[in-house]
Please model this.
Amino acid sequence: MPFLEILVYGMNLLESERTFLARCLSEGVQQPPPPAIAILNDTVTSALIWRLQSGNEPNSAQRSRAAELLGQIASPTAVAQLANTAYYPTRTDRRGGSAYDYSNVRMAAIIGLLRMGETDQEELLAGIDLVLSELLFLWQNRDVSLLIEWLDQDLNTSAQGLAAMALGDLYMQLKLSPEGLPAAQQAIDALAAKFLTGEMDEATHWAVAYAMATIDLPTVRQTVLQPFLDNLDTLLRPGVSGLQQLKCLTYLIGLVRWQDQQARTFLLQRGIRDTSDPNLMAVAIDALARLADTRDRPLMESIALGQPSVEAVPHFAGLTKAHQQYVRRKAIDALASLGDATSLANLRQNRDDTAGWSQDLEQALYRTSEEIFWRKYRDDGLRMGGRL
Model:
């Protein structure tokens, strides 16, 4: 009992080994468990649920980790939270409105639900949402045709997003066997058609982009990336819809880390140079960071300092101060993968001469500094190991 208390109260519950060990120890006692063990179980669940809230944990990777670990706890409370995260808007967006959580968090939550036994799943989800139960059933039974119907309807955006994720996941499973190839082709055709036309709401669009990113790069390149870039002006819809298409295409290029000069040129031109939309700039900066081409390091440093050239980012000066701060923070975050010690020295040396250097930017610089130093330490260690 004291050992279990140390695991629960004194250690990081996002470390899966510790959570798993605590769970095993608590399950090793008689059923129903004594009150003290029940309290510890509730504590583990409550801590992970707290960490799954975007208001408490701003890092989506950490929320995804919390969802993954919560999926190991088949209690009604855990299942209800996973269902809410997967199926309902639980995040507050930058405009203060309700939004679905990011696709990686939703996917982690749905995987947790899929791992339950069918009996537990049916019983625990019965009182939450019957459509969610049906989607899980179709996913587990690889019913591509009915999942495509859910993707193509536009009355239930929650179901559309989950159907997209299911089709991406099933494509990778079905293509492994000859008998599964026709259904796999159905799945990829449906996702590609949706992505290329852009005829869906914003939340579903992000989910379709994420679903495409779970598929192997050669397939994604052939079915959507190359056709989209080759026919960009034809496929882009007018106004806000076209802007959303650009965001999702940019997001997808970054997720799949498409190392192609055409992709990098698109990100720099359409995602940063030609746009006055700070959100598209931010997505493009994230994508460039994932491509990790060090040629982009000077650009990120100049944006971070709020001093990009007019040729590279002509619309930066026209952004509001708040939007400039947002784009600058994203550039500092990008330097965690693109930057080096010289980048840090440049930012530290010039930040005091830069207008609008805020505490938010200082915190971002601290996180980036940590990442760069750890990367250098790791790389130095690998080189030392190689010589030994």
Remarks:
- Residues 359-387 form the longest helix (29 residues).
